[in-house]
């Protein structure tokens, strides 16, 4: 285990992987979905965190023979992007935390193998571009994380987030309901689970309407994607929809991305289902999400 400087001057103690952080600090309802186990400040704008990646995750099965899913990197980034603002930057628990953009990149040759137990991951995190409002409250920042296992760096990820109080969020969202969809819509044609490379048919988040791919999760109460209430389609769902679309459009040749980017320019609503347009080219897939004639999100996925 790595030794780090504690938050008390002169204190030295190892990071701990023995128990998770409080679930409300990462906006999770289920303890099983909490990956962070310890977080501490190591300097001005720098932090060190411990994350425990389970050998088997119902949504993120091991890829290939013994690799963790690349999307678990993104989920760890998401949890850090919530925990750090709440714990260290005075963002209130009532605030709405929104992802503006994200990226991830893996070094396949250095990735840890999933053994018989969970993988202990160290997350070296830098915080920058801290923005504040007229009252001095933090309204946004950027994170960049280097992931290590056994002292070896194997991935990077980062992105931007903004924080809105209830009043500003209500103004931004207008008349949109704050109750997420919890019932199925009209049944679409669904790809077989082997097509988008998911562990279970309930993990499929796209539907087929003729030749159009739609962002439409099979399970609106999915234990990972919809673990807590939301009034818009989460960014993780959009990224997974793009991954599944790439798998289908490439006829199964692009399954496991080793790098990717996502930028959310507008909220993606639950209804009507958004369209995901994916164009594979060699080892890259460019994707765009459209809804009501507007581009809601876009990005790329890269494969080796």
From TrEMBL:
Signal peptide range: none
Family annotation (InterPro entries): AfsA-like (IPR047757), AfsA_hotdog_dom (IPR005509)
List the Gene Ontology MF annotations in alphabetical order: transferase activity
One Pfam family assigned to this protein is AfsA
Q: Where is the A-factor biosynthesis hotdog domain?
A: 25-157, 218-253
Show the NCBIfam families listed in the entry. Answer: ScbA_BarX_GamBu
Please give the name of this protein: A-factor biosynthesis protein
């Amino acid at each position: 285990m790595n030794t780090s400087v504690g938050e008390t001057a002169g204190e030295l103690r190892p990071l701990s992987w023995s128990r998770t952080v409080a679930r409300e600090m990462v906006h999770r309802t289920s303890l099983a979905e909490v990956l962070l186990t310890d977080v501490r400040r190591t300097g001005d704008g720098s932090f060190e965190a411990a994350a425990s990646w389970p050998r088997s995750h119902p949504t993120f099965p091991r890829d290939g023979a013994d690799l963790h899913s690349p999307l678990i990197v993104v989920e760890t980034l998401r949890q850090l992007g919530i925990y750090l603002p709440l714990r260290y930057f005075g963002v209130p628990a009532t605030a709405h935390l929104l992802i503006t953009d994200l990226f991830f990149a893996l070094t396949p040759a250095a990735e840890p193998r999933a053994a018989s137990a969970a993988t202990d991951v160290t997350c070296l995190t830098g915080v920058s571009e801290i923005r504040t409002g007229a009252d001095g409250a933090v309204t946004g920042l950027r994170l960049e994380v280097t992931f290590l296992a056994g002292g070896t760096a194997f991935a990077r990820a980062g992105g931007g987030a903004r924080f809105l109080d209830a009043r500003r969020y209500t103004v931004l969202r207008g008349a949109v309901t704050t109750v997420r969809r919890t019932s199925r819509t009209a049944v679409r044609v669904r790809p077989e689970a082997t097509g988008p490379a998911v562990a279970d048919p309930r993990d499929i988040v796209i539907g087929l309407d003729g030749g159009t791919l739609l962002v439409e999760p099979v399970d609106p109460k999915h234990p990972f994607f919809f673990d807590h209430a939301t009034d818009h389609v989460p960014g993780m769902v959009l990224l997974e929809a793009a991954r599944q679309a790439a798998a289908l459009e490439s006829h199964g040749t692009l399954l496991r991305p080793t790098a990717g980017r996502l930028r959310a320019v507008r909220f993606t609503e639950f209804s009507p289902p958004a369209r995901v347009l994916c164009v594979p080219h060699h080892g890259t897939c460019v994707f765009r999400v459209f809804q009501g004639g507007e581009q809601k999100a876009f990005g790329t996925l890269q494969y080796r």
